[in-house]
Structure formats: structure tokens, C-alpha cells
Amino acid sequence: MTLREYLKNNKLSVRKFSKITNIPEATITKYKYQERIPRPEIMQRIMLETNSLVQPNDWYTHKFNFNLK
Question: pTM for the full model?
């Protein structure tokens, strides 16, 4: 499950999740929209706070569009 899905399913705002995890709101927003991937220790903190619903491999689900010729 992505962080975005978790927040939506649990009706949590970025602000509230930021306070729960002690991670800045701006950083949570970047994680939510997959603009940034957390460091391993932050992934672990998020995994613990989400009861393992957001797993480390969930951060790597971003679809890349490469134009290979």
C-alpha cells in the first residue's frame, strides 16, 4: 500500500501523520506524491506507524517512462 493510499483509507491528513511520525509536513507530502523516497530508518518509522501496511517495497512502485531507442 502506498502512503497516499494509507492516508486516504485512514482519513489522515499530512499534518496529522507528520505529527504522529515526527517527520516534517513538507517531507510527508513529497513521500505521499512519490517525489522522494525515504531513507531506510524513515521507512522503518513509517512502517511501524502504519502497522506494516506501508512496506519498504511500496516506495518503489513508481512507474517510469523511459524513451528507449
Answer: 0.84
